[in-house]
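Example record

One chain of 150 residues, shown exactly as stored in the release files.
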Amino acid sequence: MAKRRTWNNALIIALSLFGMLLLYVTSLVSPKSSSYPLLPEGSSIEALVFQELVVRRDGDGWRSAPALEVKRLDGLMALWSDARLLPINAPEPLPRGPVQVDLYLDNGEAPVTVLLYPELGYLKLLGQEQWWKLLSAEGEALLNREGKDA
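Predicted structure tokens for this chain:
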């Protein structure tokens, strides 16, 4: 009886260790483990300005100029709010023609200026050396361009 209890305990410990190892390996290969949110934790967007589109918070919803349908506008703002980034090395050669996007956050500080390279899905925050790759959306969708879901 004592031998059986010893084997049962050893089996329980081995399975527990295997489960912890599996959780650890899963967290290493998950893209969320090494990605970062675009927005600082606890912040939300009050306004978004790029090219010929301006979006502002209006109560619980959004208002834009030029006007977009509510579903499309909500989808666009959800993409920006949920954007996740992966740090990358500076691309070679450096891409040209970024689209400047100003994000005004609810914290009242100066806007976060994003340089977005939509064709490549690259992003750079003005004043930082680090380059980023968009994981959660395509650059074209963040710019509300036709042919992409926004």
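Notes: The beta strands are 36-37, 45-50, 53-58, 61-65, 84-88, 99-105, 112-117, 122-125, 131-134.
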